[in-house]
Design a protein that fits this description.
Distance between the termini of chain A: 51 Å
Number of helices of chain A: 16
Radius of gyration of chain B: 20 Å
Number of helices of chain B: 9
Strand content of chain B: 5-15%
Number of strands of chain A: 19
Structural class of chain A: alpha/beta
Radius of gyration of chain A: 21 Å
Oligomer: heterodimer
Structural class of chain B: alpha/beta
CATH architecture of the largest domain in chain B: Alpha-Beta Barrel
Largest sheet of chain A: 5 strands, parallel
Distance between the termini of chain B: 42 Å
CATH class of the largest domain in chain B: Alpha Beta
CATH superfamily of the largest domain in chain B: Aconitase, domain 4
Helix content of chain B: 25-40%
Strand content of chain A: 15-25%
Strand order of the largest sheet of chain A: 5-4-3-6-7
Helix content of chain A: 25-40%
CATH topology of the largest domain in chain B: Aconitase, domain 4
């Protein structure tokens, strides 16, 4: 038999039908959030029922406040935001959908909670009403985001029409250097292949660097596959994956179930000799802590480098894009990235709000005191409770950081947490688009350790100098 | 869904690459119910100052306030999966975006809403943008059945599109109705699928 990629194996096991090259794929789990309101309107308009409500999971994350939660939903000050949260809970109840609601002790971001609960598993096809659904590929699953119409279709039929993307393998070997994190490697990948470098492709991250990562680190990497334009990103399941899965509420139970699952999961990784449409490789040892300086994630450099000069851009298009980016970001060509002063710090988002991210931030926070407002927003109540059990909240609070309640918060800036015009953030989120964190806001993407370091210094600084 | 067949309309050139869906529809407007309000929301943060007054952004003034086509650079519609970006284009009157490449999710969202996201090579997009730059308010024509774009100079550009996507757009098909014809196939698929994966059992159950 011909050698197959992990992507092909999972894809093939979900094919229900084909029409002229369009494939009807079975969906194992659908993930939705408050913003899926448009899909519920479309369902109601056409009298569609939710086909498999037990396979749909709803999360209150985008619109929930990150303070004052003890007052419950009625305590949300802005009526339109309050309605978004309560409408999701009403729609979930109406259709019998699993809901991780406002007061649920498991509440959190739709890309943080499903792995914690064992809803995300190797070999599954997961469709999410959010582009960062690519996160779940860290378990060896095909997971991708979609718009409201496609999500309406999934909820009505538990299937989706897709065309098969090409495959791209990104291989990194070697150990990441001291102070270098999974966030830095994915920023380095995007800087290398470009924000459109993965368009039309499913990425598999392979090699010893990714194999050595924890599930948390792998999720950070896969999460930002979409920032390279890829349809999805995935990493082969291995012992790290299997031991993470054990004992999670939705995971297979020990015994015959677990054994059956393991037999399937172990067969998922790409066969030796499987071919990919494209290959890219990186040397992990060369990667340094990264800072973005522009208005999309490919505009990034190592912390020791300078803001590039558009005069030196490789082509006319980038010359004009860089000029526009520096103008928006209020930066001068040639200035050192470490000379950029930061107004506030955001540590959170589906990219970097897991327990390891909080640990990394706390580790840096021990070395000083925040000189600018610095928020830490855990990705879920589960992460929050774990961090508090480890005393990380105390370390952060004592260092002057704010310890908030879980949600998307200032990544998507839709719940009221946002930058003021002209304000500059060091942010562990995934998008440095113009106005993303609030109109006129300026976003620099960094790792949790680099964000915490910026909080202590008030400007970007090489975290390796701080914690050495 | 409104079918897309042919279109002749004012085309606006946008030279920047990687125009993301946050720009097309800023996040804070995602909660707005679908409708005419989205006309104003398109590129809101580029079109309006914080005090609500209009900027010089090209879509604010004649002739581009009447645009039906955007000719862009690569990776148009990258980023968030928000379909509100497409609602905003649609309500503004944009029925077609021409670019060298698109964000995958955005392109799928366009097709579900009667908007044609069509791909031409980078040089051809750049050439059409230059024509439009020289002749503001000029029109281009798109014929989906023939898979052609006729530019300002009358030159015809052939484009590729997937057969199924083309048919759905031409006929304005609702794909849920199409898929419901597969309901038995899906149920049959599930039988075999769950037999092999007992731990997934009757859908997603919690221990």
């Amino acid at each position: 038999m011909t050698a197959r990629t992990m992507f092909e194996k999972i894809w093939n096991s979900h094919v229900v039908a084909e029409e002229e090259g369009e494939i009807l794929l079975y969906v194992d789990r659908a993930l939705i959030h408050e913003g899926s309101s448009h899909a519920f309107v479309a369902l109601a308009k056409n009298n569609h029922k939710v086909a498999r409500p037990q396979q749909v999971f709803a999360f209150t994350d985008h619109y929930v406040p990150t303070t004052g939660r003890e007052k419950g939903i009625p305590g949300i000050a802005v009526a339109e935001i309050r309605d978004m949260v309560s409408n999701l809970q009403d729609n979930a109840a109406r259709h019998g959908i699993n809901i991780f609601g406002f007061d649920d002790p498991r509440q959190g971001i739709l890309h943080i909670v499903p792995p914690e609960q064992g809803i995300t598993q190797p070999g599954l096809l997961i469709a999410g009403a959010d582009s960062h659904t690519s996160t779940h590929g860290a378990f060896g699953a095909i997971a991708f985001g979609m718009g409201a119409s496609d999500m309406t279709h999934v909820m009505a039929t538990q299937a989706t029409w897709q065309r098969k993307p090409k495959t791209l393998r990104i291989t990194a070997n070697g150990q990441l250097g001291f102070g270098v994190s999974p966030k830095d490697i994915i920023l380095a990948v995007i800087a290398k292949i470009g924000a459109a470098g993965g368009v039309g492709h499913a990425i598999e991250y392979a090699g010893s660097t990714f194999a050595a990562m924890s599930m948390e680190g792998r999720m950070t990497v896969c999460n930002m596959s979409i920032e390279a334009g890829a349809r999805c990103g995935m990493i082969a399941p291995d012992e790290t994956t299997f031991s993470y899965m054990q004992g999670r509420p939705f995971a297979p139970k020990k015994g015959a179930e677990w054994d059956a699952a393991m037999a399937r999961w172990k067969a998922l990784p790409s066969d030796a000799g499987a071919t990919f449409d494209r290959e890219v490789s990186l040397d992990a040892a060369e990667i340094e802590p990264m800072v973005t300086w522009g208005v999309n994630p490919e505009m990034a450099g190592a912390v020791g480098s300078n803001v590039p000069d558009p005069k030196n851009a490789p082509d006319e298009r980038r010359r004009s894009d860089w000029t526009m980016a520096l103008d928006y970001m209020g930066l001068t060509a040639g200035m050192a990235l470490t000379d950029i002063k930061v107004d506030r710090v955001f540590i959170g988002s589906c990219t970097n709000s897991r327990i390891e991210d909080i640990r990394a931030a706390a580790e840096v926070a021990r070395h000083g005191r925040a000189v600018i407002p610095a928020w830490v927003v855990p990705g879920s109540k589960t992460v929050k409770a774990q961090a508090e059990k480890e005393g990380l909240d105390r370390i952060l609070l004592e260092a002057g950081f704010e310890w908030r309640d879980p949600g998307c918060s200032m990544c998507t800036a839709i719940n009221g947490d946002q930058l003021q015009p002209g304000e500059r953030s060091a942010s562990t989120s995934n998008r440095n688009f113009r106005n993303r964190q609030g109109p006129g806001g300026r976003t620099h993407l960094v790792s949790p350790a680099m964000a915490a370091a910026a909080a202590l210094k008030g400007h970007f600084t090489d975290v390796r100098d701080l914690i050495k | 869904m409104q079918p897309f067949t042919t279109l002749t309309a004012i085309a606006v050139p946008m030279h920047e690459a990687n125009i993301d869906t946050n720009q097309l529809c800023p996040t804070r407007f995602n909660k707005v119910p679908r409708g005419p309000k989205y006309r104003e929301i398109l590129f809101y943060d580029s079109r309006f100052r914080p005090d609500g007054t209009q900027t010089e952004f090209m879509l604010n003034a004649s002739p581009y306030d009447q645009s039906g086509v955007i000719v862009a650079d690569r990776n148009f519609g990258c980023g968030s999966s928000r379909e509100t970006a497409v609602y905003a284009l649609y309500e503004f009157g944009i029925r077609c975006v021409i670019a060298p490449s698109f964000g995958d999710i955005f392109a799928a969202n366009c097709a579900k809403n009667g908007l044609l996201a069509l791909t031409l090579p980078e040089e051809e997009c750049a050439a059409i943008r230059r024509q439009l730059q020289d002749k503001p308010g000029a029109k281009v024509s798109v014929d989906l059945a023939a898979q052609t774009v006729t530019d300002v100079a009358g030159k015809v550009h052939k484009f590729e599109i997937h057969e199924v996507r083309k048919r759905c757009l031409l006929e304005g098909l609702d794909d849920i109705a199409r898929t419901q014809q597969y309901a038995e196939r899906i149920a049959g698929f599930e039988k075999g699928y769950y037999k092999d994966r007992p731990w997934l059992g009757a859908a997603a159950r919690q221990s």
